[in-house]
Amino acid sequence: MQISSRWKMSSATLAARRVLAAAASHGAEEAGAKTWKILTFVLALPGVGLCMANAYMKMQAHGEHQAEFVPYSHLRIRTKKFPWGDGNHSLFHNAHANALPDGYEGSEH
User: What are the subcellular locations of this protein (predicted)?
Assistant: First the structure.
C-alpha cells in the first residue's frame, strides 16, 4: 500500500514527533501547571487590580450626576400594582437610579 505524498514525513520529522510525544507524557503536566500559576500571579491578578483601579478612578471623576427625568409615555407603564410594598416600586427598586412614573423620589436627587 502506498502512502500519498502529503502524508509522507521524513525520518527526522518522525523522530522529532516521537521525542515531543515522549516529553509530553513525562512531566508536562507539572510544567504546564507551573506556567499557568506564574501567569496567574504575574498577569491576571495585576490585570484585575488595574481594572479595579480604573473603574474606581472613573467613578470618582464622574461624580454623583443623575440624568434629568423625561416622562416618556412608553416607559414606566403600570397596568396593575406590584404585589409588594405600595405597588409602585419594583422589587429591586433603587431610589437614585430608578424613576417612578412621575419622576425620581426625594428632593436630593
Answer: Mitochondrion inner membrane
